[in-house]
Amino acid sequence: MTTHYQTLRIPKEASGELVKRSYRSLVKVCHPDQFPSGSKAQGEAEERIREVNAAYAVLSNPRRRAIYDAKLNKEATPHPEPKPEHCDKCGKPTGYWHTSKNVALCRACGRAAT
Length: 114
Description:
Blueprint: H1 4-8, H2 16-30, H3 40-59, H4 62-76, H5 107-113
Helix pairs in contact: 2-3
């Protein structure tokens, strides 16, 4: 999956001016009107210009860019969000994140077993 930064060919720390400059240069190169009507190249250019426009729409808006960057950083972390343990008997969440028990049981199954 390519990021919006890769689509616009800019670094993540690029300024708003660099985003705009890159967008404008890519639009000139990738615009479908540059290619013969009905050709395969024109179809590819239409797809590319859609990607460029979507990337610019996000990266040119500071609020949307911050949300996008947060999402990228979350995906890049090597440790995902912790998940609760599930009961070995019924499969319901136990309510614990880390236990030292050999068998994870929910409250209902734990009471029934004792």
